[in-house]
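Progress narrative, work stream C.
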Amino acid sequence: PPFPPRQCAYDAAAAGFAYGRFACRDSPSTFCWSFFLTQVRMGDTLRAAGVAGFWAPMLVFFASRVIANAMGEVPGMVAGLPTTSMLFFQACFYAKWRRDLRVRFSLVSAASCTEDYLLYACCAPCLSTQEAREVDMANGVRVRGCASLEIVGEPVAV
C-alpha cells in the first residue's frame, strides 16, 4: 500500500483514526468542503487513498436521488420517506469505503460495520471530514480556506 502502516493507540472517539469522528470544528476548511460538497470531498479523499474513484460517491448520490424520485411517484408513499431512505442507501456504500480506508491505512478499529453505517447515515459530513483529514495528513496536504491547498511535505505516490 502507498501509506505506511502506523500503530495508533486505540481511541474510542477516533476508532483508529488520528482525529475524532466529531472533531469537525478543529478543521473548519475541511469541514466546509465536507458539509457543502460531501460527495466531492469524499471523492477526492477516496481517490487520493486509492480506495475508489473520484466520481464513485457522486454516482451513488445521483443514483439515490433517481431512486428517491421514483419512490416519490408511488401512490400513498409517506412524505419524506424516499429522501430519508436514500440516506441509508448511500450509507451502505460509504461505510464499505470507510472499512476499505481502514484496511488501506492499517488502522486498528473496534468499530463495527453497523456503527460505521449508522454514523454515515446520520452524519456523513463529520465522517467525511475525519477521513479527509487522515488522508491529507498522510499525503502532507493541508486545506487552507475553501479554495487552496498547501503541500506540507513530499506527496505520497499512489
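Work stream C, second folded protein:
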Amino acid sequence: GGGGSSGSATTRGSGSAATGPASSSDEIELLSYRQAWYAPRLGEEVLLAGLVHKRSRHLWEWRERWAALTNESLCFFAEKGSTQGVPTEYVKLSDVAGVALQDDKLTIRLPYFHCLLRFSEVPVAERWAECLLDAVNRCTGGAAS
C-alpha cells in the first residue's frame, strides 16, 4: 500500500462540462495489451484508469488492481502502466448486463459472474459507474441499466 493515491482515477476530458478528450502528459491515453498470451497486441484509447480493489472471482479476496476502461473493455492488471501483458481480468463491455452502485462499491453484472469493485471514496465510485455506463451504452446501444 502506498500514500493517498489509492483512490485516484484519471479521466480523459475530466471536468463537469467536458466535451472532448483532454491531453495531459501524465495520463495514460492508449492502453497496449494482449487478451491472451497468444493473441495479437491491442491498442485501445483509455477513457478512465486508476487503482481499484477488485474481489477475485474464485477466492473472493479483495485485491488492489490497476483498472483501465476503454470503449471496448474494462481490463485489470497487477501494476499500473500503459503497456501491459495479459490482464488479470478482462471484461468485454458488450457482455455487461448491468451496473449497480452502492456507496463505494460497484457491481458489474455479466452473464458468467458479477465483478465486484471497491473504491476509496464514494465520488470515485460514482465517476467509475458513470463512465462505465456511458461506455457500455455506446457499445451495446443502450442495453445496460
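Strands lie at 9-11, 30-33, 42-55, 62-70, 73-77, 89-92, 98-102, 105-109, 114-118. No further action is required on this item.
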